[in-house]
Specification:
The protein is α+β, with helices and mostly antiparallel strands. It is about 35% helix and about 25% strand. The protein is built from 12 helices and 13 strands.
Length: about 425
């Protein structure tokens, strides 16, 4: 019995370690990405074995989802290696959870990024770049890792996830995967795009700048025409001063709102969205089967929050009255708490509050209205600071009632009790 139990335990451990790490090609909706997955499936499986067999300083798991507990991770789908489309570029995407907890007091943001990059991202690059790096359609490697940060809040230690995403150009990945020089390896970060909790950041800010002041600009991938720049990893990355007179600012490219780009961005923000639901559900009454999601509307990207607004029987009236009351009684009171949980400049353009406004128990289908408030972030921030009224905020966006765009005048609509 004892020998049998021991053998069973060994087989169980072996089975866990041998779980598949690569998405099967039919699971990938994009035909071009599915074809690449099929073409390189053996190489990706071999890379998965190398990644999971590597000895990391702390436990690391490949995962389809960021920010899981270790117990959840052991029971969830670990197939995370796949080709995907990121802002029009073909990338090999690898996602995982790393159960290291860094102290916010002893490690700066740069140091945390560097540590996870050297300990986790680099082994992943070595396993993947050597096997699929020669694929001509491949543009970059997109590696997403969730680690943890410990902070002191009112004398209590609080541990929260910090989600790191690094977009590494293919040529840079090949170079760094073959390098044994740590300075060269870390310098590759300066040629990559770095996102922390879905927000683009620049590492090694100019001397005298705080991390908060440096959080907005993003690292742009090096273009093939640009001359290589040798930068010491411990040096400070300072912006190039503009000549006098300053050149005209080039127009910003339109945001990529393709389905693939929104899905990848959603993955980067997922833990933030999940935390938002947990924190605000008591007041927001989020719809359980419709979690927060990034959507495209009128050439812009919006964070869609699906909520239920409960109104009293005496609030009944026209659909405009119901919509106006839904905004004044519910949506307007959620704006500031929601904005407080979002980064200052997230990678989307606005928020759509999708309210199912119900009168009483709404047993009558006519007593429920679907009202969507598409509101731009710039005006939401002004509303947050009391610089505009609710009416001005509504006028800056779009209001849809039961799928049709309407004009909504709050005061007159609320007086309409037909």
């Amino acid at each position: 019995m004892h020998k049998g139990s021991f053998a069973l335990a060994i087989l169980t451990v072996f089975a866990v370690e041998c779980r598949p790490q690569v998405l099967s090609p039919p699971e990938i909706v994009d035909p071009a990405m599915s074809a690449l997955q099929q073409r390189h499936f053996p190489e990706l499986k071999a890379a998965g074995v190398e990644i999971t067999s590597h000895q990391y300083p702390f436990r690391f798991y490949l995962s389809r989802t960021l920010d899981l507990t270790e117990k959840q991770e052991q029971q969830t789908d670990q197939r995370s290696i796949r080709f995907s489309d990121f802002q029009g570029q073909t990338v090999l995407q690898v996602t995982g959870n790393y159960f290291a907890a860094y102290s916010n007091e002893t490690m700066s943001r740069n140091e945390r990024v560097k540590r996870t990059y050297l300990d986790v991202v680099l082994p992943i690059l070595r396993a993947t770049a050597s096997r699929v790096g020669a694929e001509p359609q491949l543009t970059a490697f997109a590696i997403e890792i969730s680690h943890h940060v410990r902070k002191q809040v009112l004398g209590v230690t609080v541990e929260n996830p910090e989600n790191l995403a690094i977009i590494i150009p293919r040529a840079t990945a090949a170079k760094v995967a073959a390098s044994t020089n740590e300075n060269e390896q870390v310098t590759a970060l300066l040629e990559s795009r770095i996102f922390i909790d879905g927000r683009a950041v620049t590492l090694w800010p100019q001397q005298g700048m705080t991390e908060a002041e440096n959080a907005e600009p993003s690292i742009q991938p090096a273009t093939p025409q640009a001359a290589p720049r040798v930068v010491n990893a411990s040096a400070i990355l300072a912006p190039t001063p503009a000549p006098n007179p300053a050149p005209a600012v080039a127009p910003q490219p339109a945001r990529d709102i393709s389905s693939a780009a929104l899905r990848l961005q959603q993955s980067a923000y997922q833990s933030l969205f999940d935390g938002l639901v947990r924190s605000l559900d008591g007041d927001a009454h989020f719809v359980s089967y419709a979690p927060p999601v990034l959507v495209a509307f009128h050439e812009m990207s919006y964070l869609q929050l699906s909520i239920t607004t409960n109104l009293a029987p005496h609030d009944a009236g026209s659909q405009y009255r119901v919509a106006a009351l839904a905004f004044d009684r519910h949506v307007s009171r959620l704006i500031r708490p929601v904005l407080a949980m979002l980064p200052k400049d997230p990678e989307f353009d606005g928020i759509v509050f999708s309210s199912s406004a119900r009168i009483g128990n709404a047993s009558d289908s006519g007593a429920s209205q679907s009202v969507e408030f598409f509101l731009p972030l710039s005006e939401l921030r002004r509303f947050e600071k009391y610089d505009v009224t609710g009416q001005q905020l509504i006028n800056s966006g779009f209001v849809l009632i039961n799928g049709e765009r309407v004009g909504l005048e709050l005061q007159s609509a609320e007086a309409d009790i037909r």
